[in-house]
Every structure is written in structure tokens, then in C-alpha cells.
């Protein structure tokens, strides 16, 4: 009953050191547990504790037995982002009603337990130091929809299990080895990355040790056909290439005299002269070990042409992939350019900002090197041709992450430092499906305000910028507001003409009466999720607060972050 639940919670708080946020008191009778204790929710009749959410409250040490494991009506337990360590007590692992267990971002070091509550829907043990192999008993969690084990120290082979309901799974960045079981091959490669000894779809194929005679014959036939096909494709490509502007280019070492020679115009590095002064400058902490020559030799593919120049995906030696931005219209000299690169490097030190890894400056050529974000941009996620349904949790994560990234840029860059080009194509998605801001710090070295690279880009531009070019941090706040509305509505920033007039997203949202927001404004895809309406409404209000016309009336970016975090604290999702 509630008094035994209360005792279990107090025993837990007494045994586990924690920060000042947790002020559970023994006074005010039992009912106060359900109404005023931080992180606690009860059944509607107030008789049992069903939710314990204590994210980031400084919990330290192991979870003691006979505390939380006594809450036998508990459905949701979140102790994420604390300093918990040791192993998980058995009573906790046998809670009969537990549906969601969030223990990510702690310091647990034991093996993954061999058994978990039977009815678990969500299990998140990521970003800990769990060791050992993934137990095959995990297959008995037949209702599991989400399984996150990434960034631990798990080893051994992945058990060959079939999860009927599993929709999201991530076991990346462990030490797993062997082949990926067939039943898990439908998950994207981001779910498996960072396990160098893992092979099979969707990663690289496993090498076969024993090949039968039949297999050799089959390989020979398939190989022969493949060679013929390749020859046909090669001839076809050569024919197509003649007279067309090429988008896929082979980078060759430049003419040592610095002349362009016969290099195709689409190549980056067209003006590169290699000598001691003109070297690729890497920043500290960069894990790459290629040099300018490797970069120039890489096979490069144009992935976009933006307002600052052309962006290439460059693959070196079939292994290292980076993104190279070839800037045009740089208006500053080498010294100022280098100074700005240092600023960019400094503001890039945040998990929600894409770090600049290296740069190159010569009179004719300015190159920037970034990590390649395989998941692409927020724009592609929201509006791309091969987009997948995009759930509320992921949208909120990306929105909050992006806001944190911009707030960091503003605070580290100084009061006059702005991003200047916040838009969904400049928000890249990392392996944790978090949003990361790219193209930071380019405006000061280019023609001050970027020319819009598409009509949609105009939709992010704050109204004051159509009158003057006084870019401020509040103009970034406006652009972020548009981006937040884009995430909530699933709509592009500029709507197709209504009676001959282009309508921007903020005006369109404001034109819908508040009572109809739920049915009219929010993305249809979000309608299938339950209990998110209140949170969506609050996020929409924050977005609208960012896009007010008068810059001074917009909140600062750190305030936007605070408001968004408040929404999450009031109704955290996990
Ligand atoms: N590091 C990266 N990893 C993966 N994709 C990237 C990376 N950087 C940029 N892109 C993608 O490449 C494309 C071209 O980017 P680019 O910055 O040249 O143009 P843009 O973002 O469309 O416009 P703008 O120059 O105005 O920012 C965009 O779709 C962008 O999302």
C-alpha cells in the first residue's frame, strides 16, 4: 500500500546520496507523496506509486536492495543521468508491473542482468559501463519496443533472438563481434556502428572462411555477370559525362605550379598549391590522420550547393568519410580567416554543435573539413523524399538539442556573435538522433548576410533583416522559432501561395484559431501518439514567443532552453 511505498522511497533516499533537488519529507501524511514529492506519480485513486522519475538529481552509488525493488506497482522508473554504479539489485529486476526502465548515463559496471521484468516495453541502459555479453534471455522480453544498449563495454556475439515488437534498437559503440543475426538486419547501420569486429548487414559483409565448390562456381558466374555489368555501366557513365556538368568527381593532386591545368571545375582544391605554408590545419582533438594530398585524391560527391559555397562528401581510402565545404566569396584576408577559424573551433566544443575539424586557406581556395553526419539533416528528416515517420520524442530531443547548441554558440561567442543561418538543413542529426548546429561562424568571413540558398531559406529570416542587415542573437532566436514550428507542424517555412500571396509559417500558425491548433496545426503524424497534446501546445507557445516581430520582445536563447526544459520536467517522456 501507499505507506509501504513511502517507506521504500524514504529508505532509498536515505541510502543513496543525492543533490538538494530531492526534498522528500516524512511529514504531511501519506497523501503528500502523490501530490508534492519530486518525481513521484500515483494511481488515480492515490493508493500506489506507479512512476518514479529522478533524472539528473545527483544520485550517487549503487541502488540498494529492499528500496525501489519494493515498489511492486511501479510502472515507470527513470534514474537517468545520475552517478549510480555497481550492479542492479534482483528485487528491482523482478518488479512485476515495470514497463519502462531508464538507467542511461550512469556508471553501472556489472554484466547486463540475465533477467528483467517480464513486461518491459522500454529498456535503456545506454551510456554506462556494462560489461559481458548481451544475455540471450533478453528474448523473453516479448513486449519490448525499444532497446538501447549503446556506448557500454559489451562484448561477445549478439544472441540470435527475434523481437516481435521491437521498433528501435541501438547497440552501437560496444565491443561486440561476429555476425549480426538475420532478425536484426532490418535496423539501420547507426544501430551497430562502433563495433569494429561486427559484420553482416547492414554493416560490411562477413568474410567467408570455407567456400564449397558450388559456391566457387556460383561466385564465378555472378562475378562474370557483375564484370560485364560494370563495363556496361562504365561505358554508359562515360557517355553521359560528355557534355554534362559532373556531380561526382575524382580529386587529383593539383598542378604543382598552382595552375588549374585540366582539372574539372567542380573539384574542390582547384586553387591549392602544396607547399609548407599551404597545409591543411587540423584542430586539437581531431581524430583524423589524413593530409591535404589524401583529401585532394579522395573520391568526392557534391551533396549540396548552399549560400556559402559547395559541400562535398569525400571518401578517403574507402574508409574515412568527411564533409568538405568549399567556400566562395570569402571577404577576409588569411589572418582574419585564421582568427575566425579559432573562434569557430572554440564555439564548436559542445555536443550540439558540429565541430570544425580542419581548414585550408590559399588565395584561390578556402576549404573547411567537418565530420560526416550519416543520418543527414533535419530538413531531410522532415521533408526528404525517403523520410520515415518521425515520432514526438525524437522531435523534442532534436528541438531541445538544437536550442542548447545555439545557446552555447551565443554564450561562448560573445554578445555580438550570431550564427546567422539557422535553418533545418543546417541542423545535422547525430548517431543519438540529437540535433547539431552546423555552419557556425561563417557569416563574418563571407558577404555579411548569406544570400538565401533557396526560397525556403527566406522563411527563417527575421523581419528586421528585410529592413536592415543588423543581425543580432535575437534574429537567431527568430530563426529557431521558425524551426520549432517546422518540427511541430511538419510544414516548410514558406507555405504555397494562398490567393497569390506567399505565407510564412509563423503567420500561418497565428492565423489558425487556438481551439483548432490540435486538429489543424500539428503534424498529422503526431496524432497517433497519446498524452502529448499538452506538451505540444507548450512547445508551440515557445515557438510563437520566438517569432514575435519586435526583436527585444523575443526571449534570449538560454531562456528558450530553460522554457523547453521546464516543459520536459513537468511532463518528462521517459
Ligand atoms: N557534415 C555534414 N554531414 C552530412 N551532411 C551535411 C554536412 N554538412 C552539410 N550537409 C548537408 O549538405 C547539404 C548542403 O549543405 P550546404 O551547407 O552547402 O547548403 P545548405 O545548408 O542547403 O545551405 P546554406 O549554405 O545556406 O547553409 C545540406 O543538405 C546539408 O544538410
TrEMBL record:
Pfam families: LRR_1 (PF00560), LRR_8 (PF13855), LRRNT_2 (PF08263), Pkinase (PF00069). GO terms for molecular function: ATP binding; protein kinase activity. It is found in: Membrane. InterPro entries: At_inactive_RLKs (IPR050994), Kinase-like_dom_sf (IPR011009), Leu-rich_rpt (IPR001611), LRR_dom_sf (IPR032675), LRR_N_plant-typ (IPR013210), Prot_kinase_dom (IPR000719), Protein_kinase_ATP_BS (IPR017441). GO terms for cellular component: membrane. The keyword Transmembrane helix applies. It comes from the Eukaryota. Residues 297-567 form the Protein kinase domain. The chain crosses the membrane at residues 213-239. ATP binds at residue 325. Gene3D superfamilies: Phosphorylase Kinase, domain 1, Ribonuclease Inhibitor, Transferase(Phosphotransferase) domain 1. Keywords: ATP-binding, Leucine-rich repeat, Membrane, Nucleotide-binding, Phosphoprotein, Repeat, Signal, Transmembrane, Transmembrane helix. This is Protein kinase domain-containing protein.
Amino acid at each position: 500500500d501507499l505507506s509501504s511505498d513511502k517507506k521504500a522511497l524514504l529508505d532509498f533516499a536515505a541510502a543513496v546520496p543525492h543533490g538538494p533537488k530531492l526534498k522528500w519529507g516524512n511529514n504531511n501524511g501519506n497523501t503528500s507523496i502523490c501530490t508534492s514529492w519530486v518525481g513521484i506519480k500515483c494511481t488515480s485513486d492515490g493508493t500506489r506509486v506507479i512512476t518514479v522519475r529522478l533524472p539528473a538529481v545527483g544520485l550517487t552509488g549503487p541502488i540498494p536492495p529492499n528500496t525501489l525493488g519494493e515498489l511492486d506497482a511501479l510502472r515507470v522508473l527513470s534514474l537517468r543521468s545520475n552517478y549510480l554504479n555497481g550492479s542492479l539489485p534482483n528485487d528491482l529486476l523482478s518488479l512485476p508491473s515495470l514497463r519502462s526502465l531508464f538507467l542511461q548515463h550512469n556508471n553501472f559496471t556489472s554484466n547486463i542482468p540475465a533477467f528483467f521484468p517480464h513486461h518491459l516495453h522500454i529498456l535503456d541502459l545506454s551510456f554506462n559501463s556494462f560489461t559481458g555479453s548481451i544475455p540471450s534471455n533478453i528474448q523473453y522480453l516479448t513486449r519490448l519496443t525499444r532497446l538501447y544498449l549503446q556506448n557500454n563495454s559489451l562484448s561477445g556475439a549478439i544472441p540470435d533472438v527475434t523481437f516481435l515488437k521491437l521498433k528501435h534498437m541501438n547497440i552501437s559503440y560496444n565491443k561486440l563481434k561476429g555476425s549480426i543475426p538475420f532478425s536484426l538486419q532490418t535496423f539501420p547501420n547507426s544501430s551497430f556502428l562502433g563495433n569494429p569486429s561486427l559484420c553482416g548487414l547492414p554493416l560490411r559483409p562477413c568474410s567467408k572462411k570455407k567456400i564449397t565448390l558450388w559456391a566457387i562456381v556460383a561466385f564465378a558466374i555472378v562475378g562474370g555477370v557483375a564484370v560485364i555489368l560494370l563495363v556496361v555501366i562504365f561505358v554508359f557513365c562515360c557517355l553521359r559525362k560528355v557534355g554534362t556538368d559532373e556531380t561526382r568527381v575524382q580529386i587529383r593532386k593539383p598542378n604543382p605550379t598552382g595552375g588549374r591545368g585540366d582539372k574539372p571545375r567542380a573539384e574542390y582544391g582547384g586553387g591549392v598549391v602544396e607547399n609548407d605554408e599551404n597545409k591543411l590545419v587540423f584542430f586539437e582533438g581531431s581524430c583524423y590522420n589524413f593530409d591535404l594530398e589524401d583529401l585532394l585524391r579522395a573520391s568526392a560527391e557534391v551533396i549540396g550547393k548552399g549560400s556559402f559555397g559547395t559541400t562535398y562528401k569525400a571518401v578517403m581510402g574507402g574508409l574515412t568519410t568527411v564533409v568538405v565545404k568549399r567556400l566562395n566569396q570569402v571577404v577576409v584576408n588569411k589572418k582574419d580567416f585564421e582568427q575566425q577559424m579559432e573562434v569557430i573551433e572554440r564555439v564548436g566544443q559542445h555536443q550540439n554543435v558540429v565541430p570544425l575539424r580542419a581548414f585550408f586557406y590559399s588565395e584561390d581556395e578556402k576549404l573547411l573539413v567537418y565530420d560526416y553526419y550519416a543520418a543527414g539533416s533535419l530538413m531531410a528528416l522532415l521533408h526528404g523524399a525517403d523520410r520515415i515517420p518521425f515520432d514526438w520524442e525524437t522531435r523534442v530531443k532534436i528541438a531541445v538539442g538544437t536550442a542548447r547548441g545555439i545557446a552555447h554558440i551565443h554564450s561562448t561567442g560573445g554578445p555580438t556573435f550570431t550564427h546567422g543561418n539557422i535553418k533545418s538543413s543546417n541542423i545535422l542529426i547525430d548517431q543519438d538522433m540529437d540535433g547539431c548546429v552546423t555552419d557556425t561562424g561563417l557569416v563574418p568571413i563571407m558577404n555579411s548576410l548569406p544570400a538565401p540558398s533557396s526560397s525556403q531559406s527566406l522563411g527563417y529570416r527575421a523581419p528586421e533583416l528585410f529592413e536592415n542587415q543588423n543581425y543580432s542573437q535575437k534574429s537567431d532566436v527568430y530563426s529557431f522559432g521558425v524551426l520549432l514550428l517546422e518540427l511541430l507542424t511538419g510544414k516548410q517555412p514558406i507555405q504555397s501561395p494562398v490567393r497569390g500571396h506567399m505565407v510564412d509559417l509563423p503567420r500561418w500558425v497565428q492565423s489558425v484559431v487556438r481551439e483548432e491548433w490540435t486538429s489543424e496545426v500539428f503534424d498529422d503524424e503526431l496524432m497517433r501518439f497519446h498524452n502529448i497534446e499538452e506538451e505540444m501546445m507548450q512547445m508551440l507557445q515557445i515557438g510563437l514567443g520566438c517569432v514575435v516581430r519586435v526583436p527585444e520582445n523575443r526571449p534570449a536563447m538560454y531562456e528558450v532552453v530553460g522554457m523547453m526544459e521546464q516543459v520536459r520536467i513537468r511532463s518528462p517522456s521517459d
